Amino acid sequence: MNKKAYQRKVFLLIGFISVLRLIIASVAELGNDESYYWTYSHFLQWNYFDHPPMVAIWIRIFTANLWLQNYVVFLRLGSIVGAALSTWFIFKCVSTLHSPRAGWFASCLYTASFYAGITAGLFIMPDSPQMVFWTFSLWMIVRITLDDENWQNWILFGIASGLCIMSKVHGVFIWFGFGTYILIYKKTWLLNPRLYVAVILSVLIFCPIIIWNIRHDFVTYRFHAERVVIHGLAINWYGFFKEVVSQLMINNIFNVLLILSGLFTWVKYPKGKSNALAVFNFIGMPLAIILLFISLFRETFPHWSGPAYISLIPLAAIRLADMNKDIFPKILRWSIAIYIIFLIGCPLLISFYPGTLGSKASSNMGYGDMSLDMYGWEKAGKKFDSLYHKEVNEGISPAATPVICYKWWGSHLQYYFCRPSGIQMIGLGSMNDLHQYMWMNEMNKDKVNFTNAYCIVPSDERYNVNEQYAAYYTKVDSIANFEILRGKLPSHSFSIYRLTGWKGEVPVEK
User: Fold this and answer.
1) Which backbone phi and psi does 228 adopt, to 5 degrees?
2) Are residues 292 and 334 in the same domain?
3) Cβ distance 499 to 476 under 8 Å?
4) Are 303 and 209 in the same domain?
5) 403 and 455 co-located in one domain
6) Whether residue 121 sits in one domain with residue 59
7) Which of 118, 288, 335, 478 has its Cβ near the most Cβ atoms within 10 Å?
8) Which residue range is the domain that position 73 belongs to?
9) Rounded Cα distance, 487 and 1, in Å
């Protein structure tokens, strides 16, 4: 089969999977992380409390500067387009390094990764733009190792790696792996001016992150350091086991098995191929191992390991191409099949499972059911809209009464409860809880009347509203409870509170 035939297969794969993702993206409600990144897009900054700004720019681009923000499919469109581009870049990367057949395998493995195909390829996350620039950087690394005198390759690599870091700080591992390879195998490149041009371009692109953090006492890095810095020597074997399982699952166990097989054989490849694979190993392996080590002492999250395994997909694809002559080997079919089953099955479960997979008790109904993160919010939001405007029209609450939250995931309520009617959300709490709301408060506080406020509490996040907001309001009244049904059975509910007697000062960060 010739190169064009494999390219057609890749285009068909991208087209088919993209259509599936578009359908699912249009029917599944936003998760709380996604709604939080949506709030980024309303206030463009050089950096945000948690992450660099690329995800906000991504949302702006694919919602036509927020004109289409009311449609979740457009909020997620950047992820779907990004996944299509990334699939093509990984194909180009591996077909340039080995063969179009191996490139086809790599595109299949990338598609089948739950991290690449769902976390970064369906949901709108910082990982979505990051994977575009990550995979493009891998392609440029191949081209550099095959022709280190081509200025274009170095310049494009410098730009792509800089934009990768501007998407998510994981991007520094691109330079860590590339730099390690240079120091061990290619010291002659230290005399190559093209390397320094690439470095300068990359630094110029991501330096706004550093400048912003200098102005804000490195708040981003202090926050992320607290998540990974080890404070004690007590080993948490459960956390380690969970991280091992998470790395296997989110990266697709079939993909991981192929990667492990490739790790034992890559040194046998001819020098031209092994050079790029060595760089990919220096990018992926340290990240995966560091996360396993951290998991012994601190909590880690499954998607953190995603970029590590994406870097090792070329290794797996080449290994598969060398040991199997089929166009579509069984292990590849299994990998794709399990991904498609999950991709279709999860939205069906979210939409139609009767009741809840979590707690059935009225006090915390739905607790433990992750599917409720994307179900019932729009229905409850419409009920709140009627209640809110009824109370404002009757003079119970003044116009411009805000909704308040104490955690950053209040953005979920903001998107489904506040956005449709232009109600402002104000965060009342500490910076470590509110995150970006500390900056949004400064921009929104003069738009609201603090005499009254509303608080909305999902049943699976039940907390004492009186205690939480005692420093800000003197009185709390419970005024409504909206029960949400799924499959004709109660799944979760939303309790509505009215707060009066404002006595606080709005926490802000300029």
Assistant:
1) -120, -15
2) yes
3) yes
4) yes
5) yes
6) yes
7) 335
8) 3-349
9) 49
Could you tell me which of 30, 36, 215 has the C-alpha nearest to residue 123?
A: 30
Could you write out the three-class secondary structure of 239-250? HHHHHHHHHHHH
Check if the beta carbon of residue 145 is closer than 8 Å to that of residue 137.
Answer: no
State how far the Cα of 242 lies from the Cα of 250, in Å rounded to an integer.
12
Whether 313 contacts 110, CB under 8 Å: yes
CA gap 17, 198 in Å, rounded = 34
Residues 6+ apart with CB under 8 A from 394: none
Q: Are the beta carbons of 75 and 69 closer than 8 angstroms?
A: yes
- Whether residues 464 and 344 fall in one domain: no
Distance CA 424, CA 404 (A): 8
Each residue of 264-322: pLDDT tens digit?
776 566 555 678 999 999 999 999 999 999 888 888 888 999 999 999 999 999 999 98
Asked if residue 192 and residue 94 are part of one domain, the reply reads yes
Helix H or strand E encompassing 454: strand 452-458
Q: Are 407 and 485 in contact (CB under 8 A)?
A: no
Residue-wise pLDDT tens digits, 61-78? 999 999 999 999 999 999
pTM of the model: 0.94
Query: Can you tell me the distance from the alpha carbon of 450 to that of 500, in angstroms, rounded to the nearest whole number?
Result: 8
